Amino acid sequence: MALSLAFTPQQELAGKMPVSLERARAPQYGRYLDEFVPGQVFIHPRGFSFERAAMLDFARTFMQTNPLYLNTDFAKAHGFTDLPASPQMVFNVVLSLGVQNDSEKAIANLGYYNAQFLRPVYPGDTVRAYTKVIDRKERGADKPGIVLIRTLGVNQHDRVVLQYERKIMVSWRGQRPPTTPVPDEPVDFPWVNEAKLELPLTGAFPAHLTGPNTYFEDYTPGDIIVHANGRTITDEHVALTYKVCNTHPLHYDRIYSQGLSGKMSGEPIVYGGLVFAWLEGLASRDVSENALWELGFTEGYHTQPSVSGDTVAGLSRVLAVEPLPGSDPAGIVTFQFIGVKNISAANALEKHGADLFIKENDKQGLGKDKIGDKIFEIERRLLIKRRT
Amino acid sequence: MALSLAFTPQQELAGKMPVSLERARAPQYGRYLDEFVPGQVFIHPRGFSFERAAMLDFARTFMQTNPLYLNTDFAKAHGFTDLPASPQMVFNVVLSLGVQNDSEKAIANLGYYNAQFLRPVYPGDTVRAYTKVIDRKERGADKPGIVLIRTLGVNQHDRVVLQYERKIMVSWRGQRPPTTPVPDEPVDFPWVNEAKLELPLTGAFPAHLTGPNTYFEDYTPGDIIVHANGRTITDEHVALTYKVCNTHPLHYDRIYSQGLSGKMSGEPIVYGGLVFAWLEGLASRDVSENALWELGFTEGYHTQPSVSGDTVAGLSRVLAVEPLPGSDPAGIVTFQFIGVKNISAANALEKHGADLFIKENDKQGLGKDKIGDKIFEIERRLLIKRRT
Amino acid sequence: MALSLAFTPQQELAGKMPVSLERARAPQYGRYLDEFVPGQVFIHPRGFSFERAAMLDFARTFMQTNPLYLNTDFAKAHGFTDLPASPQMVFNVVLSLGVQNDSEKAIANLGYYNAQFLRPVYPGDTVRAYTKVIDRKERGADKPGIVLIRTLGVNQHDRVVLQYERKIMVSWRGQRPPTTPVPDEPVDFPWVNEAKLELPLTGAFPAHLTGPNTYFEDYTPGDIIVHANGRTITDEHVALTYKVCNTHPLHYDRIYSQGLSGKMSGEPIVYGGLVFAWLEGLASRDVSENALWELGFTEGYHTQPSVSGDTVAGLSRVLAVEPLPGSDPAGIVTFQFIGVKNISAANALEKHGADLFIKENDKQGLGKDKIGDKIFEIERRLLIKRRT
C-alpha cells in the first residue's frame, strides 16, 4: 500500500481563526507517586537504534580507553561479531528511555542496584525498554515517597541486554494536573532470573594495544588506585542528555531549573548517567583497559549533583578477585568506585583518607560528616583478561 | 588513470620569499543586492552526504521524539526503505548549502514560504541544492532591498526532496569589494509545480513506541497545546552551524559579530534553522510523535534572534484538520507554531494570551505592541496517523 | 571457544573491607626526559576505527569546504574508492594516539616537520600508531630537554598512511614517580624513506560543486590570501580532544590546568591539532576546495596557546607552484599558512604587515618583536586540480 497525495498550496490560516484560550492544554509526562501501582509494566517510548559511529562517539566523549569500544578490528579479534557498544552506553540509553514513564517527575534518583549486562549490543541493533513497578513506599501525605522499579532493555530479537533496579523519590501529585496515562493492558516483563553471560571469545587476544599492568593478576583486594586525570564537564551535557534519549528537563531547561528550590535549583544538573560515564572513562586506563566485559554494578549513589564547569575525577578500590574455573582466560574483579569533583583524586584521598570509601548514607550512623567533594559511589564487577 | 608521485623532502621556503603586501587579496562570498539578477540560477557548492549516524545525531540533538527518526526498525515497519532523515534536518541542510550564494551577505532572513518535503532522504543519499532568483525589490539607493528566491534540494538521482521560497534583506554593495562571481551559464532549475507525495506505507504501524494521545483524532481546530519543556541553547550552536553546512559568519565568528552594529551585534546569533529545529523537537511529543510525514510549512518568521544561553520553548495551535479520502490511515493537521524564549510556554501564554498568536508583522496595523518574548512563528502541515 | 558464566547476585562488599591507605597507587602516563632513549619504538595504545559519519563530522566541525571530505558521490567520481578522511583528521588522530607515550608529560609541543600523507584512510579502516625516539637533547640538569621523535600511522593492512617528525620539550623526572614502563622488546618501525603517492584518479572531475577561482592556475608565488572568516572556539574543544584520542590533561582537566604555573596555567588549552584543523577549514574555500590531496607540511609551530572563547582566523601566502610533468591534471602549490586570534585576518595583515610572515623564532635574530596575535605558522603542500 502506498500513500499518494497531491501537494496543494498552503494557505495562511492563523489570522482567520479566533484564539480560544480556554482550549489550551498542557500535556505532562512522567508520573507522580499516586500514579505508580506495583505490578504495572511500562513500555517505554521510541527505542534507540545503535550505530557504529554513535557508539564510537559515546566511547570517545566519555574517554573510554578499552579498545573493545574504539577499534572494530580489535573487538573482532576477540571473537565479538562486531564492535560492541560500551555497557555504559547501554546503561545510559536504557535508563533514559525509561525516564518519560519512570522519573520525569521524580525529585531524586536514589540508587542503582543489581545491574547486569547480559549480552552485547552491536551496530544496527535497536534497543527498547520496559519498566515494572516493584514497590511503592509511602512516607506520609506531605512527604515524597520512594518507588522501587525494575527496568530492562531488549534488542530487536527481544533478548534482554541489560536489567537493573532503581529507587526514585517522587512527590504526590497534589493539585497538579495528571500526567499522560499508561495504556491499561497486560504487558509481559521479560526479567531474567537466572541470567547467564555467553561471550563468543577466540581466546587469542591481540597484545600491545592495551596497558601492560592492568590484567587480572594486577589486582589484589585492598589495592587503591588513584586515577590521574579529571574531566571538566562543559555545557555539552545539555545536548548529551537527549543524545541518550533522557527527557527530564532538569538537565536541559534552565527556566525549569531556575523555577526549582533547593539543591537542584539554578543551572541544569548533569544527568547522573553521564557523570558515571565520565568517571568510568577516567578510570578505564587503570582498571578496565583489559576488561572483556562489564558484568554489572550495585549500590550506586549520586551523592552530590554536578553542573557544567565541574571537573570530575575518580578512585577505585579492589574489593574482590575471583578467577574463573578451568582454563578461562579471565577473572572477575570487584571494585569500589568513588567519584569526586573540583579536587584531584590524589588530593581527595589525602584530604579525606579512608572516609572517602564509607557510603555517604552510612556516615550519620557512624558519627561522621558527609563529604561534599564526593559525588558518586558504586560497586562494579568487571571480567578482566589474565596476562597470557 | 592513476596519479603517481614521489614525495620529495619539503624544503622551508618562506624565509627566502620577500613579502609583497600589494599582492594580497581577500575573497568574499555571498552576494550584495546589486549582484542578484532575477532568473539567475545558482548551483550551490559541496553537497551533503546523509549518513545514518548523523541523521540520528541530528534527531537527538534537536530532541525529536518521533521514532521514525530514531529507530530504524520502526521506520522500516512503516514501509520506509530505511531510516528517513527528519524533514527538519533536510530543511536545515538545503537552506545552509545555499547560504554561500544566497545569503552570506544578507542582513536578515525575512521569511520562509511554501516549503514542501517531496520525498524521504535516506542514509547514503547525497543532497545538492539550487537557488533561482525570483524577484529583487529595491527600496531606494540607501536602503537594503528584498530578494525573493526559490531553493530546492535534489538527491543523487536528481529528484527534488524539498523546495521552498525565502525572502532575504540584502544591502547594496557600495564601496565594498565584489563577491566571487557565479559562473555565467544557463542552468536548469527543477522546481516541481504539481508536486505529489508518494510514501510506500505498510498500513500496519507498530504501537506502543509513541504516545496514545497524539493521533489525528486528538486534534480539533482551535486547540492550543502548551509544550511542557524548554531547551537551553548552549555554545553548541556555533559548531552546529556548519554541521549543516551554513557558512554565514554571524553564527560562528565573534569578531565578525562584534564588528556589527544593531540587534545582531555582540555574541554570535543562533542560525534560525537550528532554533526552528529545537522548537519542533520540543513540540514533537505533543504534536508529531505520530506523524507519518511533515508536508511542509509557510509564513515562517524569526521575530527575535537567539544567542547561546537562551532557553527556547513552544506552543502549537490547531488551525485545520483534514482527513484523507478513502481508507488512508492518516490525516492532515495544520498547526500554528509559536516559539518563545527565556520564559516557559505556559507563562508566555498566561502573560500574552491571544496576542501570542497574532503575526508580529500584523501587530502595528492592529495597534498592538510586538512581543519581545516571541522568537518564531510559522504554520506547519503534518500528516498524522489515525488511531487504529 | 565461548565464555559462559552464570550471573550471581552482586553482594555489597565495601563496608566489610577495611581501607588500607598505604595500598594506594597512582599510575602515571607519558614519559619524562630521563625515560626517552633514542632508538626506542613505542606501540601506541588503542587504535582508531574511522567511520564515515565521524569523518563527515570531523570535516564539518572544522569547517572543511572541499567536497572530497563531505560528499561521498563527489569523492567516488574522482576515483577514490570511498569518502577519504581529511588528512587533517588523520594527522589529529595519529598524533593523539601517540600522546600517551610521547607527550603526556611534555611541557611544550615545539614543532611539526616533514609530514607526509601517503595514502587515503577510508570508512572502516582502523589506524594504529608507532613512534621512534630519534634524538634526546639535554640542556642541563635543571632545564627541560628536547626530544625529536618520528611518528607514523598504519592502516589495518600495515600500510603507512601518515608519517611526520615532532619536537617536544620535556622535563626531567626529578622526584616524581616514574611513568608506566614500555614493554622492552624490539619493535619494527615501518618509516618509508622513498615515499610515493598513488591516487586512483578518474581524470574526469565533477564541476560546479567547488569554487571557480581556486584551481592550480589561480595561484602565483607571492600571492597573499586573506581568509574572510574567523571561528570562535567554544568549550567543544574539551570533548574534541579525546574525540581524536588525545589523552593530555592540559586540554580537558581544569583542576590540572589550574595547578600549573606560567602561560599554560588557568583554563584548559585547546589541543594544537584542533587549532590547526579549524584554521585549515577556514582557509579551505580559498586554497583547498579544489585540492586533490594534501601532500604534507613542515615547520609547523604553535606560537601562542588558544583557549575556549578565542576566535581564530588565517592567511595564506603562495610560496611555490609546481606543475606535474606530463598530462597530470594537477599541480603542487606550497603555501605559508599563518593563524591569528581575536583579530580578523584582514586587520592582522594591516596591523603587522610583512612581519606576520616571519617565523616567530627568527624574530629575535632580526631585532623584531614577536607578534602576540599570531598563534600558528606552517608551510603546506597541496596537490590542486588544474582548471579543465
Brief description of this entry?
Three copies of one chain form a homotrimer. With 388 residues, the first copy, chain A, is of the alpha+beta class.
Can you put this structure into words, describing what you see?
The structure is a homotrimer of 388-residue chains. Chain A has helices at 52-61, 72-78, 87-102, 236-243, 254-258, 272-287, 345-352, 360-363; strands at residues 3-6, 24-25, 41-43, 48-49, 106-117, 126-137, 145-154, 160-170, 196-199, 224-226, 231-232, 291-302, 311-323, 330-341, 374-385. The first copy, chain A, has 388 residues and is α+β, with helices and mostly antiparallel strands. In chain A, strands 3, 4, 5, 6, 7, 8, 10, 11, 12, 13, 14 and 15 form a 12-stranded antiparallel beta sheet that branches. In chain A, helix 3 (87-102) runs antiparallel to helix 6. The termini of chain A are far apart. The interface between A and B is large, with 59 and 88 residues.
